[in-house]
């Protein structure tokens, strides 16, 4: 039995009247990967923010190696060797890898920065982690996956012995995830302990040694991973509430030979994406599969007029459309659920209600001298909160205070209210819990069943295969294949199609 490194006992935390953590215990052993699991809003991030000194606890205690440890702010956590690897990466994009690793604690020779020594030491840390990257490379030239590993290298170079990884694979490709897992296993060997927050159950079963499950701020179970399986985890998470968990593919009835709802002809975005043509039928769910940088997001952003179309023609429902501004795109019948919900999808300082209503303000204006119909708004938003199971104490709560998954549900529901003809979703279920994931998939299907079209981008192939009728593979701005879903037998086939499409 390896020794317990950190313990959190009887942790209680409330925000106003809402008790978010109710007497929670958490114990992390040396050299283990401990999964922290629970539905959206269960209290996972709050518990970790207490551990990393972002929030202070109301009641309870934290012990490290059996000694009570006061963690009142992030500096205390850092001194205790605890580091959080952020989902939204905190590296300075214009600086080099080495400069980032030593940011704020530069090595000096006299009064000058010792660039050579920093590069040398950074190289050692990178080599130790098996990262094949030159320390003098500017961070903005790295992939998201590599940037995340640099964050880990940075923490390790500062002698962190506890790492908190919050949805670390949310924007990683399959091969980047494999690389991250390799590093996690190496760190374990070195005795580093890790808390792993994720909604991706297959990853948890693969990488974790132990698991703690929270539900509505309460500790439900904490056990070794070998005593768990998918069914049990889901049972503990949802508390026996029946909810459809499996997203199996169902062959949908739509006219594959029928009319095009959307047609792109020779779309040009930039030097990389020069000639993209495809169509979406009425009632069809089309997937765009490709590695990071293949152009998936750029195509969606161009259709939504966030990016300027440099050439080509777009037809929607028999009409040529040439949108210059996202509002024109909304009016034409496009909706986009963006990849980065915090920056692009929401106004974080505003309430759930105001965010939900933003794209449909015209619909809730009444009277000759236009006034906002508060009753109508409240009805719409309360209905969506219920329909999507959005955990919030009130529709007037600042949306930035909601858990990540619940924020995403607001983004999706608000766009559905615009009655779009084409719904474009970029990684729609990143950070969304398993219950809500199947709800979202159900909603996407229902939307398409009404004769609308969907374009889905997801790095989770399981999800793509569960939802799409047809999948287009992209590589480096080019379409490399169009595969009907029914022709794909195994997930690996899609993985290969995406990886090999560049060759
Ligand atoms: N600063 C805050 N003020 C008010 N409420 C908060 C604050 N931080 C978190 N909460 C609330 O606490 C609850 C738990 O949130 P938390 O972020 O810990 O959940 P989570 O388990 O990490 O969820 P997710 O999987 O969606 O990220 C949520 O209902 C959230 O709205």
UniProtKB/TrEMBL annotation:
Its membrane topology is listed as: Peripheral membrane protein
Where does this polypeptide localize?
Cell membrane
Q: What is its main location?
A: membrane
Domain ABC transporter residue range list = 6-241, 256-501
List the GO cellular component terms: plasma membrane
InterPro entries recorded for this chain?
AAA+_ATPase, ABC_carbohydrate_import_ATPase, ABC_transporter-like_ATP-bd, ABC_transporter-like_CS, P-loop_NTPase
State what protein this is by name. Answer: Sugar ABC transporter ATP-binding protein
**Organism in which the protein naturally occurs:** Anaerotalea alkaliphila
